[in-house]
Amino acid sequence: MFVMMNEDRFEEERKNMVRLLRLYGVSDDVLRAMEKVPRHLFVPEHLRDKAYADYPLPIGEEQTISAPHMVAMMCDLLDLKRGEKVLEIGAGSGYHAAVIAELVGESGHVYTIERIEKLAETARRNLERAGYRNVTVIVGDGTLGYPPAAPYDKINVTCAAPDVPPPLLEQLKSGGKMVIPIGRHSQELYLVEKKDGVVMHRKCSVVFVPLIGRYGFSEP
Ligand code: SAM
Q1: How confident is the model over 65-78, as pLDDT tens digits?
Q2: Quick check: is 107 catalytic?
Q3: Is beta strand 85-89 parallel, antiparallel or unpaired with respect to 152-157?
Q4: Of the listed 66, 93, 186, 205, which one is catalytic?
Q5: pLDDT of amino acid 1
Q6: Of 2, 14, 15, 66, which residue is the least packed, with the fewest Cβ within 10 Å?
Q7: Quick one: 217 exposed, middle or buried, by C-beta within 10 A (0-12, 13-18, 19+)?
Q8: pLDDT digit string (tens) for 147-169?
Q9: Calpha distance 28→147 (Å, rounded)
Q10: What are the structural domains of the chain?
Q11: pLDDT, tens digit, for every residue of 11-31?
């Protein structure tokens, strides 16, 4: 009974979050996906009351789950379609990967890389509990991409890089898109399009944790 009441409350809060995102101009497809993903299952238990608030939350290991509006904006920029193969760098809680998994459907697949093993384990557990089978969580340095499943239709980078890591560009299909925050103290979100050449579109100022790895920043 108590569990039921909580689930009802979370569903109501999720609807309110989606109402707010609609006002921001988020697409119907992304709104539908975000209405399905139980974000409260991806945040630490003591923060569940805040799961549907529109700001980032700590997930342990000094990392964060991005704010819902940022997840929505990045998904819209990638223009995700059913059946696509997506690489994500920075699995964190697994939430963003779950939203992408909804958008690409069961005929698509999400590969998400996390450098911190403990977070990767939590992301795997969260995704399993929420019922996502089209997501593979990999532990490693995401700046190297994930060659076994390359090339990718889309790449989603959820931490801020010094520049676009060359392996990610190599593993993006021709005609593919990548979103990536770039910068250390002052960061900008870029949409990168790979066509005949590479076109970088600067979108807005953002705040993300750093991408740490061979083609990222060095360990703090
Ligand atoms: N997408 C996540 C979610 O939905 O919860 C939020 C990601 S959090 C803003 C950024 C994540 O990137 C952190 O978990 C961090 O450990 C990870 N990260 C940083 N550098 C990385 C790298 N080189 N490879 C893989 N993950 C990395």
Answers
A1: 999 999 999 999 99
A2: no
A3: parallel
A4: 66
A5: 45
A6: 2
A7: middle
A8: 999 999 999 999 999 999 999 99
A9: 33
A10: 2-206 (3.40.50.150)
A11: 999 999 999 999 999 999 999
